[in-house]
Amino acid sequence: MAENHPTRSRGLALAVLCAASLMVVLDSSIVAVALPAIQADLGFKPAGLAWVVTAYLVAFGGLLLISGRLGDLFGRRRVFLGGLGLFTTASLVAGLATDAGVLVVSRFAQGVGGALASAVVLGMIVTMYPEPRARAKAIGVYSFTQAAGASIGLIAGGALTQALSWHWTFFVNLPIGVVALVLAVRVVEADRGPGLRAGLDVLGAVLVTAAVMLGVYGISSYAWGALVAAAVLLAAFVVRQAKARTPLLPLRLFRIRAVTGANLVMVLMVAGMLGFQFVTALYLQQVLGLDALRTGVAFLPVPLVIAVASLGFADKLAARLGPRTVLLSGLGLVIVGLLLLTRVSVAGSYFADVLPPLLVMGLGAGAAIPALMGLAMSDVAAADAGVASGLINTTQQVGAALGTAVLASLAASRTASLGSADHREALAAGFRLAYGVSAGFLIAAVALGAGVLARRPRPTALPAEPEVCVAGQA
């Protein structure tokens, strides 16, 4: 199969991996617009309702790094299939839930399955595409799923909740998950890792998983005790990695300038861009008066423009100008879009004040994100591809939690300080401040990228995986 039609089979395998990755990514946002319906149906208290989102994010963010390492040890396809199966099963349970506790537990299980499945995808792609030009194109496809997933989730969540019910925000995963599982078994090459004989740093895994989980929870819930505990555990993890014979996250990866720079830029970039989506959804509903469905549709231009950029010309620009230049230029466009949004007002309109910045930002993100993903995997050996993939996904989740928490808090504080003013005007003032801070995150990302990332990183080609066999031919 794969040997007779290698190009076609490899393309289909890429499509399966990206479809599964898209499903996992959009699940972090698809439920957002369904929360009021879930609260009314299952009787959530306001404080408990947040756990429908937080339970997923805590499990997903906390387990990405260990999931990537497990892929290196036991085979990335095996970990991917196991995670996808768990995610799909948990989606069924969530959709059938008639109790608040069952829904929260199933959301946590979704996060575990999502981490296992998505942590290894980028590592599988860069190994599957060793040729630099083909790899850049494949990473562009993958980056589209990462960049557009949240926007697509908002659209799908609004449509499904309004047309059917909140249960379908989970049921929609079932056909996608089942088809992806069946196709992945047939077209994704099986790989054999060295297994436990290569060593698994169990203590390091416990330390980093607890640190990231507490960090994501602390940022999302403004729990300072959790943040302090996360910082202590993270410091202990770094000490452990320096001394462990077989570290979970080899510190040698951070000696690769592009890897270190890309992960730091990722935190700042996602903090600004994901936080902006949260703020914009509130502005459209609370100030401009759009309902859930129209709010979701309002984001539709973003994934469309991202698709044009990331799938159409991002790889060509990176080949001609270098990924660093494309990254910084793309982030510059995102900054322009965010600065334009600092002008929103009560008297504003979607087509005049929101749509133009969305188009500019989509264009910039579509160019920047594939370049950043490629840099994050630069010079990474095949044996470390899984953990490097898990690392960039982890920093992405930390950035998302950081940006959403910081921007939501600042916007709310600014609105509260203007309590005597017109409420909609006070809301708009809070959102303007949040957009300015988002632009600040991106400006910091540009400054960091310009200072840390090399102008022309050395082209890389991961060596072929040992003991690779095609499914069904082992």
UniProtKB/TrEMBL annotation:
UniProt GO cellular component terms: plasma membrane
Organism: Amycolatopsis mongoliensis
Domain Major facilitator superfamily (MFS) profile span(s) in chain numbering: 13-457
Gene3D superfamilies: MFS general substrate transporter like domains (1.20.1250.20), Multidrug resistance protein D (1.20.1720.10)
Keywords (A to Z) from UniProt: Cell membrane, Membrane, Transmembrane, Transmembrane helix, Transport
SUPFAM superfamilies: MFS general substrate transporter
GO MF annotations, alphabetized: transmembrane transporter activity
Membrane topology recorded in Swiss-Prot or TrEMBL: Multi-pass membrane protein
Ranges annotated as spanning the membrane: 12-35, 47-67, 79-97, 109-129, 141-160, 166-188, 200-217, 223-240, 261-284, 296-314, 326-352, 358-378, 390-413, 433-454
Locations listed in the record: Cell membrane
Name of protein: MFS transporter
PANTHER family: BLR6921 PROTEIN (PTHR42718:SF46), MAJOR FACILITATOR SUPERFAMILY MULTIDRUG TRANSPORTER MFSC (PTHR42718)
Cross-referenced CDD domains: MFS_MMR_MDR_like
InterPro entries (alphabetical): EmrB-like, MFS, MFS_dom, MFS_trans_sf
